[in-house]
Amino acid sequence: MLSRTAIRIASTARVQARSFSHSAPRQRKVAVVGAAGGIGQPLSLLLKLNKHVTDLRLYDVAPVTPGVACDLSHINSPGKITGFGGDATQMAAALDGAEVVVIPAGVPRKPGMTRDDLFNTNATIVANIVKTAAKSCPKAALLIISNPVNSTVPIAAEVLKRAGAYDKRKLFGVTTLDVVRANTFVGENQKWDVSKVDVNVVGGHAGITILPLLSQVKGAKFTQDDKEKLTQRIMFGGDEVVKAKAGGGSATLSMAYAGAIFADKVIRALNGETGISACTYVESDINPGTAFFSSRVDLGTNGVAKIHPIGPIDAFEQQKLKEMQKELADSIKKGVDFAAAFKL
Predict the structure, then answer these.
(1) Can 74 be counted among the known catalytic residues?
(2) Where are the alpha helices (DSSP H) in the chain?
(3) So what's the pLDDT on residue 111?
(4) What is the pLDDT of residues 213-233, one digit of tens each?
């Protein structure tokens, strides 16, 4: 017999699974590339619970991937799941006809590493994945989690352009974890229900390029010290996790949760559900000097439907926005330059 605690946990899991989707189910083919990793496995679990994901394909170079799919296939949610492990041929098979591709593939951060330290390895990984996607699922929405997002999204854009498959409305850098952290930390600071907080976070997805717009949080009362400490913590929340894991990895579970939340929003919007918005890193002209920028966007049946401007911000945030400009612009250029030399 199950204990009361076990029953309560199971009930909570069912409620959370239902919370990922609200409208009538519609069939969607979704692929996860990097599915056997620290982010990929919990992300795949959450997508298996999503009622809109009826055909879930998991790919990773690791041979264990079919086993991950087999494990998840025993969960009594209706979506079909298939695992592909191995070379580029297997990746192409996994991506064939996919409508949404979530990409957490790559090496994780370790203590002392910045996201930029990951560049040389992860840039090549992302470029090869996008090259395959351009052939196997050219109309798919691509959701890039692989760091450094500030550079990997521009890489993906350039590879897609050269392949004749670029649609700027369907290329996303997943910055949802920055929003999740902001919501949690602000809610705790204000003694609010953290699940009911929604902070706009703009800029990029690394260190000082992450800017939570605390001045736009309705009803909040922050001291200057609060603002400075919260902003710093949101900017460097990833470092907090890396340090706490003491060499055992980076943010995987919270990133998987954030990735599943964003993927669900994209899928629901593709299905025609209206009123869906999210902060995400996309090609944008709202911030002069940076061709890619994260801000709130409205999502629709073709991906990005509208990019919202930054909006009014206070002097503290204006200074932080100014401070991020060079780093973000340099990261974008680094990605573009890498893609120019990448062999298709």
Answers:
(1) no
(2) 4-19, 40-48, 65-73, 88-95, 119-136, 149-162, 176-190, 224-235, 237-244, 253-270, 315-341
(3) 67
(4) 999 999 999 999 999 999 999
Mean pLDDT of 256-271: 98
Checking if the pLDDT of 88 tops 70, the result is yes
Q: Which residue, of 175, 194, 210, is where some domain finishes?
A: 175
In a domain, 44, yes or no: yes
Beta pairing, strands 28-33 & 100-103: parallel
Q: State residue 15's pLDDT score.
A: 43
Residues 189 and 109 in one domain: no
> Left (φ > 0), alpha (ψ -120 to 50) or beta: where does 82 sit?
beta
Pair (265, 326) in one structural domain: yes
Model-wide pTM > 0.85 = yes
Q: Which of residues 175, 205, 237 is at a domain's end?
A: 175
Q: How many domains does the chain have?
A: 2
Among residues 22, 52, 74, 205, the one annotated as catalytic is: 205
